[in-house]
Records
---
Amino acid sequence: MKWVYIEDLAGYQDQDVEIRGWVHNTRSGGRIRFIIIRDGTGFAQATIFSKDENDPLFKTFDRLTQETSLIIRGRVREDKRAPGGYEISVAEIEIIQVAVDYPITPKEHSTPFLMEHRHLWLRSRKQHAVLQVRAEVVRAIRGFFDDRGFRLMDTPILTPSACEGTTTLFETKYFDQAAYLSQSGQLYNEATAAAFGKVYCFGPAFRAEKSKTRRHLIEFWMVEPEVAFATLEDTIELGQDLILFILERVLTKRRADLAELERDPSRLESITKPFPRLTYDEAVPRLQEKGSAIKYGEDFGAPEETIMSDLYSSPVCITHFPAGIKAFYMQPDAARPDLALGVDVLAPEGYGEIIGGGQRIHDPALLERRIKEHNLPPEPYQWYIDLRKYGSVPHSGFGLGVERVVAWICGIKHIRETIPFPRLLYRIYP
Ligand code: ATP
Ligand code: MN
């Protein structure tokens, strides 16, 4: 008998198949027994029908507990009432292991309890749906860049110096030297962009975020494209296209998961290009009108991002920040050198910044001056300054955080559920 996956059942109507999985739930009534089986790709209903109450299948059914591993053999039948549209009419059950006292029961559990059992919590319907969406988002991102001729460049995780701020750096030992876990692959990608034109890196980023928010993880995944000769405008265009591509993919491929999460897809479907745009100068008075205490020259905090994103039903781009609150490498605006050619894209519904990026300084003298102004040691940046000496060109890029995008798409309040094993301020187990 052929072993098939639940997500492929539609192709096996009226055929005998084998499903290998785990018992999610059981129900019985009269002459009928239901097993909700999950096999990793989905959940399906398997039914046993018998007029004989001593039917051996009923006896086997009675041994099934939540998370018992088993193989079910039977015929695939179309059934409009069954979740997924198909069910298995059971002919044979082979128990692999009876699970005893599975800790996550169908009753409500506290979040700390669930986090402590994250290794098992992953099996629940909602967590499964979120991580299916995550896998699709990651696949969409790779496809988007690969199809546009971007070259994947893996940047190092162990780095000799801080890329941006030092306050959130994880220090580790590198033999007899200090090393830091990467917070971003950007600086390295500026080098690969000069070698390959358009590149992206996609990997984990580590930030010792000391404040507890629902938008920050200690370890998260970021995709960072970098394009030689691209301007701020080009990078905004690229960011918009990427977001729209991700949305379209998830909306076509993972609709059932969005439904499981009770996420209204119309909120995502209505998003189109171009996203609303404001400069920092335009945004500050609007924020103040809405009750924010922000003063001109200050960076947006979580409350500002929330107010801003509540004004629109689509992601919104904020550009031209005061140079002083942005990273040392940001290209100043030619007309207003006090402003940086940077962009933050804020997700709607209060999900915060999902993209941060902009145009990088390409003038070597200016870059060296900025490094000094930011009190950064010049030695570790020699290679980075080199890039401005040998055929320097304007270039731009951005970083998009996978978990915030997944949280937004799924409508999940806290980012901790968007990665299989979140690293949080007070949690590194399991
Ligand atoms: P924030 O102000 O929200 O802390 P940031 O300005 O530090 O964000 P960037 O350095 O621009 O963020 O990083 C690019 C993207 O990476 C962000 O837009 C966001 O999507 C994501 N990101 C940044 N920090 C985290 C984090 N701690 N956890 C999850 N995602 C993050
Ligand atoms: Mn940050």
---
Amino acid sequence: MVKSFQYIYNDEHSLNQFIQEHGIDQYPSLLIQAFVGDSPLAVIKGLQRHINRILPRGTLIGCNSNGQVIGGSIVSEIVLSFTIFEVTVIESLLQERSGSSKQLGQQLTGVLGQSDTKAFIVFASHLHLGVQEFLEGVSERGDEIVIAGGVSSDLPDKRPTYVFTNDEITSEGFVTASLSGEELKIHSHSIEEWQEVGPVFTITKAKGNILGEINHVKPIRLLDTYLGERFVSALPDSSIEFPFLLRRENEKVAVYIMNVLPDGSVELSHGVTEGDTVSFGFVDVRDSIRSTTKLLSRLKRHPVETHFVYNCVARRRYIRDVTNQELSFFNQVSPLTGFFSYGELGGTGGKPKLMAHSLSYLGLSESVREPIRDMKIDFQLTPEADVMMSLTHLINTAEKDIKELTQNIQISEEYYRSLFDNNTDFVYSTDLNGRFNSLNPSFMKTFGYTREEILGKSALNFIREEDAVRVRRHFYRAMDGREQYYDLPIASKKGEVNFFQIKNIPITVDGKCVGIFGIGRNVTKERQFEKKITQLAYYDGETDLPNKMKFREIVDEHIQRAKKKKRQLAVLFLDMDRFKMINDTLGHFVGDVIIKELSQRIQGILPKGAYLGRFSGDKFTVLLTKEVNGTTISGITQDILETVQAPFSYQGKEFYISVSIGAGIYPQDGEETADLLRNADSALNWAKSKGGNNTVYFSRDMEEEITRKVEMEAHLRRAIEKQELFIAFQPIINIQSQSLIGCESLLRWQHPSWGLISPGEFIPLAEETGLIHDIGKWVLVESCIQLKEWIDRDAGKFYISVNVSARQFQHPTFLNDVEEALAISGLPAEYLCLELTETIMLHDASRTIDAMKSLADLGVKLAIDDFGTGYSSLSYLKHLPLHILKIDRSFVQNMSDHTPDVAIVQSISTMGKGLNMKVVAEGVETPGQLELLKQLGCDFAQGFLIERPMPLEKMNTFLTKMHLVTNLDI
Ligand code: C2E
Ligand code: CA
Ligand code: CA
């Protein structure tokens, strides 16, 4: 059995009495612990002498202390604890500091450590002795010896503190009592509950126990920042309140400051190395209570016979309530003694350690006791402790928040990092002077520079000089807070230039712009593609000229400007005359070559500020924007007409082409693009309808014509009644036999005051007004009657060819009109030929073909007139019931000039023959033409060379002279 007696020392006499009373001097194995408070050396020495006198066999260890524990309460007097053992052997050792503390520890084990040694009770005089190393030395042999104890501490006025045994005393050393014996049961425990608080720091300079720098600053400066002046000035003692928590192998070790060195570095209780991370530790009251309650519950079940606590002064100060109550609970188990220390020693053989803010507990028994039943462990906290708890809670929560925040910052920083590092776009930042201060890997990859070649340099060094002004402007706008986007060509280190789309955004910190972020993407391919698309969408592939869409945009744009500057613009529409025929007979390839050369020629003579566009096929447009007036326009249109007329040569042959021009002027002919273009286009149609190779101005020429038309229409209405119309006859001969084969009726209008009017002028008017039905019917009847008369009086046997306009032909009664004319005149149908133009095919082709078939069924001959000027191709003719094909006179007349017209005439006549049609060449004016036509295989001819269209009397005379055919063979 182990038994303890506790005694508050007053004087020698009463001590003698106490010892006698309890028979303490009877026991051979006696451990005496003396906790002497702040007693000076003389008092301690007196106590030593006294004890040695009355208890010569007792083993004494003692030390100065700051609060002594007796029977569960704290007193300031000297406390003596006597523990008697039945079988356990007690020995003691005082070790003065010499050499390394570790060696002292090794030495201790060597001297006191027996095979049955169960525990060492160790008191150290000062923290700065290297207590941790001492303990490491003790545990080195690997004995499972429990260590408990405490560090004495500085007394007021820097008086030294002492540790002592029976005979020795030192202010620089350790005293140890060893407890050995098989019967001894040890119950030990350490309560040290450190909670991490504040940021994690990295040790950046250290050597052994000397900590030189944390996070690159002197530790004292860091401590001053985080823990304040009071803490720093109270070092090293204050270190036990907030030690460093060193992270080592999944463990957090409390490391204390032992000494502050003059240069601001500190000496630590543990050795540290550079790269170690530390944070601050503080005690968590709740955890402390929890641990103590656990320990007490165990003691209740397995009570010890006696026990000691070496408790931290900081616990007494900061959690006094808890400390007081826990002491009284302990005392309910068995007599308790101990003292308040400045560092607690605890743990077993494997890992004894120096602790702080902790409780080192040692329970001893030599026999087993019954569990204690009537003991309540219920900590009652005073409001003061509650505040402490709340503060602890607050610190804990705040700490958690900070951790979370730091983690979030870390996460978002990682997000940002990966956005920066893994971006395939290059990303950079510059300072306010435009100098690079960060670059992502893609930047280096894109341009082939190393980081060092770029960092610190102005971004302007890497772009073309001509872009500098623009880039600077974007930079300043971005600094103003406006996001900037722009394209920029940038050369790589190797000189390869690419196009980049750059985005600049300001970097703002605390509402202030501190730099610019730039993000760039290579858009070379996209830009090239866009260019191609634009080219395709806006430009004509063959001539590279703006197409219809682009041209409209150009006109739009210039109208906006002209509006502001009150200027005139002119739009010209150009259309090649007879171009369709060139395409059909010579092939599209030749057509394309001609179009290309034509566009170049026109482009060549256009003045500055003029735009040429290709509207469609052989239709071009010109926009004149500079010095636009009547004179300049007519000068330019004249130039165009002339340059187009110059011969084209292809494969050694020459071609002639002409063009029709329609002109519209802004603003009088249209204030909007659409109006202006439409009007210029209708002017072009007028120009075409007037035979081509000329220019028509929208309003000027057209209006004149309109007034004239209105007037003419009124007169034309009465022309039939007034017998102002008459027919002129033009003979058609067989080229081979030179005999008369037919004659064409050509209408004439003899106006009393205007004179003879050409059908070219009034027929279109008659068509527009619908008068053509009456007029056409009249011509038909008159022509049939006349031929019947000639046949009847044997004046000739030939066919009569009557022109039928499209509108007339399409009239539902037309077939009827023809039948009527034949009936009235009695002319056999085969003597009548109807001349149709290609335009009749433009409307409802199937109905037209049906009508033609009905006419052919009557026996009437059908001719296609002015062939080659329209839009039909030769190939469709075979579907029509045609007998005669009349080559337009323009081909015949151009033939002499080695033009493509020879080829055209040749192919028309060949084709006509293949389709079993007679081919008539119109407008034959020279014997040469006639000769050529003969060679080309043309059947019939008509033209001034033979006879001009003649009034009736003249025709009668002609007929008398003419060699007449007896058989109508067409
Ligand atoms: P078209 O049917 O092509 O008529 C031939 C035109 O060529 C006539 O013009 C004729 O005078 C002219 N001509 C004949 N030989 C020569 C020549 O060697 N050299 C030149 N330079 N010209 C020649 P015209 O009489 O002025 O008639 C013009 C057009 O008016 C006709 O062209 C025809 O389309 C139309 N036309 C005439 N009479 C009628 C008619 O009764 N009804 C309809 N619907 N249209 C008619
Ligand atoms: Ca005709
Ligand atoms: Ca004709």
